[in-house]
Amino acid sequence: MNMLAIDTATEACSAALSVDGQTTQQYRIAPREHSHIILPMIEQLLNDAGISVSDIDALAFARGPGSFMGVRIAAGVVQGIGFAHDIPVVPVSTLAAIAQRALSENGASRVLAALDARMHEVYWGAYQADDNGIMRLLGEEQVVPPQQVPLPDGTDWVGAGSGWSGYAEVLCERLGSGTVSQQLEDCYPSAQAILELAIPEYAAGNHVPAAQAVPVYLRDNVAKKSAA
């Protein structure tokens, strides 16, 4: 199976390609450049693999939460490719991708993923690895002030994501001593992590047509809050 994954939801921009189990990735920290570099990244991956878009069996993308413009860019790209070539899509949570990367690169099996949501809030989700090395959501993802994040069970959690860069002190005070044993503030989502999550989902039949590859923002009243 061949799967292409992209992520443009945060400061990081990446694309990854899995061809018969072999994965390659293009990854850059490039704020405000995503719309210019994501298509060349995809083209480079396809050229290096010696395949074309028509050889892709499935697409995956970071559906959010994250930068509103960034999430829309990824959704638009996969919708365009999916429509043109009738390719199914696996939407993947940005927070889940952060947790999966923390597991793959740092061995963190219990992750409190947080992204800076602006407006003095964070996008928040708690994840734990299953027996197959896939991070699973505990509870629900939400957007919440850092001083009100849900309290997880137990200790020795790993905090990952940009929310820990701006709100580490508040989050640790809220969670209590010993809850978080490590912080990975620069752990952004990556297309590689999205592939790790999307491939088993696709195999299980959990995919949608391109028309249903839509962003998930978590926050529905952005304009109202901004005006306030």
Task: Explain how this protein is built.
The protein has 228 residues and is an alpha/beta fold. The chain has two domains: 132 residues, Nucleotidyltransferase, domain 5 (2-Layer Sandwich), CATH 3.30.420.40; 90 residues, ATPase, nucleotide binding domain (Nucleotidyltransferase, domain 5, 2-Layer Sandwich). The chain contains six helices and ten strands, in the order βββαβαβαββββαβαα. The strands form two sheets. The chain has a five-stranded mixed beta sheet with strand order 3-2-1-4-5, with helices on both faces. Strands 8-7-6-9-10 form a five-stranded mixed beta sheet. Helix 4 links the parallel strand 9 and strand 10. Helix 3 packs across helix 5. The longest helix has 18 residues. It is globular, with a radius of gyration of 17 Å. The termini are far apart. 46% of the residues are buried.
In terms of topology, how is this protein built?
Elements: E1 2-7, E2 12-19, E3 22-29, H1 34-49, E4 58-64, H2 68-85, E5 89-93, H3 94-106, E6 110-116, E7 122-129, E8 135-144, E9 157-160, H4 163-175, E10 180-184, H5 191-203, H6 222-227
Parallel strand pairs: 1-4, 4-5, 6-9, 9-10
Antiparallel strand pairs: 1-2, 2-3, 6-7, 7-8
